Amino acid sequence: MADDNAARATDVARAYYNTDDVDGFYAHAWGGEDIHVGVYADPDEAIDVASGRTVERLAAKVADVLGGGKVLDMGSGYGGAARRLAGGFDCRVTALNISEVQNRRHRELNARCGLDGRIDVVTGSFHDIPAPDGTFDVVWSQEALCHSGDRPRALREARRVLRPGGRLVFTDIMAADDAAESDVRALAERLTNEDFATPGFYIEQLRLLGLSDVVFEDLSAHMLTHYERLVEEVRTPSPGLVGAVSAEYLKGLGENLPQVADACRAGHLTWGIFHGRRG
Asked: Which of 24, 85, 88, 135 has the least CB density, counted as fewest CB within 10 Å?
């Protein structure tokens, strides 16, 4: 049953990210580099700038093992994080992602930056990571595990490919620990997820896997700011966004994004950074 759930969730996520509408939205509303929640210095800050700051925030937590190391980015999207890590820390990045649409653009952007020799873009699932045990110094992920139909399996795979002493660092969109299922069920469906994990779930799973120094940094306020910014982008869309997505999809964004922002405001959704060390 768990295998079926994982396969089904992978297929749903692949179909979602391969659509022209979704690709256009991320490219024109989010900047097409880091398609993840941002850390904001100012509520009116550009989304792509804040999203880049999130990469810096995660990298600071594992900087002591990044330099010259091997990194796995699970659910790498368009590769903004991979390029920052490869360029800033001289590390080798394996970028694992299920969407070939995103992966094609990722490879093109790497080539433009001269980083295609340091980043391997691999089409595949984090439920079955195509790498031997103990390969990586860092396993990294940003808002990808929310698409998993078997999160314990994905986390086991992440631990398996970490070397002893290696670090796991990730973010995810989650339900608050005290949120009722009725508060978040519809939101999960709108984001094409079967359900949401919670911070408590992840902390328990990481400890069950034997990771030490497990810490969660709650950055939920930034998620609210992020979705408020997205609401603004859709309310007054740029010509590029209008030309890149269908009118029907843009209308749906105008209905769905405010509901996600409202859930953040009500404390039903949460977001932040987890990190831990493999013993």
From this structure: 88
Determine the pLDDT at residue 207.
96
Q: Residue 111: what pLDDT?
A: 97
Which 3-state string (H, E, C) describes the chain? CHHHHHHHHHHHHHHHHCCHHHHHHHHHHCCCCCCCCCCCCCCCCCHHHHHHHHHHHHHHHCHHHHCCCEEEEECCCCCHHHHHHHHHHCCEEEEEECCHHHHHHHHHHHHHHCCCCCEEEEECCCCCCCCCCCCEEEEEEECCHHHCCCHHHHHHHHHHHEEEEEEEEEEEEEECCCCCHHHHHHHHHHCCCCCCCCHHHHHHHHHHCCEEEEEEEECHHHHHHHHHHHHHHHHCCCHHHHHHCCHHHHHHHHHHHHHHHHHHHCCCEEEEEEEEEEC
Contacts of residue 51, defined as CB under 8 A and 6 or more positions apart, other chains included, come to: 30, 31, 33, 34, 35, 36, 37, 38, 80
* Longest distance between any two alpha carbons in the chain, whole Å: 51
Report the distance separating Cα 114 and Cα 105, nearest Å: 14
Residue 144 has pLDDT above 90, yes or no: yes
- Condensed to tens digits (0 to 9), the pLDDT of residues 88-98 reads 999 999 999 99
Give the amino acid at 72: L
What's the pLDDT at 254? 92
If 0-12 CB within 10 Å is exposed, 13-18 middle and 19+ buried, where does residue 139 land?
buried
Kindly give, in sequence order, each residue whose CB lies less than 8 Å from that of residue 182, ignoring residues fewer than 6 positions away. Answer: none
What's the whole-number mean pLDDT along residues 15-22? 78
